[in-house]
Specification:
Elements: E1 5-9, H1 13-25, E2 29-33, H2 36-46, E3 50-54, H3 62-71, E4 80-84, H4 89-98, E5 102-105, H5 110-124, E6 132-135, E7 138-141, E8 146-149, E9 152-154, H6 158-168, E10 174-175, H7 177-184, H8 194-207, E11 213-216, E12 220-223
Length: 229
């Protein structure tokens, strides 16, 4: 099952084997590498349902691997969790801003990592209801997990997709950062509110119309009723 296929990119052999053991015990199919260039090749060949990506790896850095994966149509929506020893807020924001959907600082609990991976995968899976959402030229086909703007495809990462869906289901409503955090992010109690701002910025860039999602000072964000700020 492709959705349970994991690409593990980690050059610490002992940690890699530990993570692999816990995921395989949970029923995942795991392929691994410690090299950034090889990870990019494997991502195209394997079509993994999830990528666990260490920041500090051989060759191309994990951050650059994440950036390149997000630029490719084949991996633009593949969930990515970054693993790193860099725990400062700016590093976490930088990782998320590059395209990661979640971020776990070393040392971590392998059981927690499996739980987070399962939650990210569950939230990124399309609903099978055939539902379609439309607003201001944006069309979201939930069954096909596709987004178009004025008939042209828009490629979103899993987090931006979930964020846009939440807005499309509530056009015109002002949604606080806390509301968005709890609705869109797994383990939201561990994620900072600033993370919402990072992904809102990425979503605006992808949509190509920054004013469509309006910032409401001291309140949050709103998908404007007519798409005009």
């Amino acid at each position: 099952m492709a959705s349970r296929r994991l690409l593990l990119v980690e050059d610490d052999v002992a940690l890699s084997e530990l993570v692999r053991f816990h995921f395989e015990r949970d029923g995942w199919e795991v392929r691994q590498t410690g090299d950034g260039e090889e990870a990019l090749i494997m991502a195209d060949e394997l079509h993994p349902g999830l990528i666990l990506l260490d920041w500090m790896i051989e060759g191309v850095s994990g951050l650059e691997v994440c950036r390149r994966l997000r630029r490719r149509e084949t991996t633009a929506q593949t969930p990515i969790i970054m693993l790193t020893a860099r725990g400062e807020e700016e590093d976490r924001i930088r990782g998320l801003d590059t395209g990661a959907d979640d971020y776990l600082t070393k040392p971590f609990s392998p059981r927690e990592l499996v739980a987070r991976a399962t939650a990210v995968l569950r939230r990124s899976s399309p609903a099978l209801t055939g539902e379609r959402l439309e607003h201001s030229g944006i069309e979201m086909d939930i069954a096909a997990h596709r987004v178009r703007r004025d008939g042209k495809p828009i490629h979103l990462g899993p987090t931006e997709y979930r964020l846009l869906r939440y807005f499309l289901e509530r056009p015109g409503r002002v949604l606080s950062r806390q509301q968005l955090l709890e609705a869109v992010w797994p383990h939201s109690e561990e994620i900072e509110l600033r993370t919402v701002d990072v992904h809102i910025r990425r979503l605006r860039l992808a949509l190509g119309e920054p004013d469509l999602i309006r910032t409401v000072r001291s309140a949050g964000y709103s998908l404007d009723g007519e798409g005009v700020a």
